[in-house]
Amino acid sequence: MRTKPDLSFWKLWNLSFGFFGVQIAYALQSANISRIFATLGADPHQLSFFWILPPLMGMIVQPIIGLLSDKTWCRFGRRIPYLFVGAIVAVAVMLMLPNAGSLGLTTQVVMWGLTGTMLFGLMSLMFLDTSINIAMQPFKMMVGDMVNVKQKGLAYSIQSFLCNAGSLVGYLFPYIFTFFGVQNVAPEGVIPNSVIYSFYIGAAILTLCEIYTTVNVKEYSPEEMKQFSAEEEPAADSKVAEKPAKKVSIPYTFISIGLVQFFCWAAFMYMWTYTPGAIAAQCWGTTDVTSEGYQAAANWVGVVFAVQAVGSILWAMVIPQFKSYKLAYVVSLITGGVGFISIFWVHDPYMLWGSFLLVGAAWAGMLALPFTLFTNALQGHPKMGTLLGLFNCTICLPQIVAAVLGGPILKALTPEGGIAPEVDMLVLAGIFLIVGAAAVAFIKERR
pTM of the full predicted structure? Predict the structure, then answer.
């Protein structure tokens, strides 16, 4: 039996580079879906229901992709064929979704209180998130497959860096297009050109990134995988404490990390859903989706999400310096929780930068640390892909629960006849992150 060799920095980089393109697509979806559906006529109390589809599709698709890719091998590899197919579908949908209001579909209610344009947008969103999940999941699995225990933290930190760099680009696109004179307002029910062009450019970059990964990554063959030891240990110079491997029950690890994940991903679901309305009301003093103020606020959402991505990039470089992954996790989540809660008192758009820099620390920790802790417990497991696919349910399920409860919670917080206080949902998100930090105490590490 032999252990997996150390990989050079650039091999680790190439292993996750395609994540950059996938995350641009995901950032465009995250920052603009509430804006798109509000423009198409959705009420603020309805917005969270439109966010049920993305995590629901992820919960269905990711375990299937994990199971199938565990059993796949062809000349293109084991995981790569799935990420390439997912990228192709994502590109196609990215060209359709922002045109939901421009296709002459009916604006009358046709089903479940939704108009024809909303239904088209909803179906496009379903296919977009399904394809993004298909393209995203293999990158996490390839790190689990090809990286040894000693380099696992570094590999996921690189993936986190590329993820946040992609987010930075995707979030800023509408703002950049508007800066260069592309129309940022449109007739009622039509998506502005600044958003449409952003999706087009994002689709092009996604295509190039997936081609780069396919050309530059060679996965281990089934024969090579069988030769690697199931009990790899960190080298002597590892920052992780030098102790013999500690056996940890996989179900216990799944549940304990999943508990933390529940609060974290519920928090970010509320960020994606309610930040546009919260910033428009807090900093621009408007809730009229057809106004220039609302569309300017919606562009600013991309800016503050980009600031969050910068905070994530910076914090991702700090995480490997912690001697304990659990301590890094706790500090990351508490920092993000403080950032969310502080938004309640902010009315200057530029002051939001400080809040979202702090939120970025939580995002960096959420991207890198749960998968590091879980794949360390799985090291050498023959069904790594299947288990990682199931583990992604700890990302999807809390988002579904948060989306279902978001509307009723916001309604309960709204004074009779008053404006929905969407900023209160961001305060709730901060509380969730702090509760998640407390739940880290239940996780047991395999060192």
Answer: 0.74
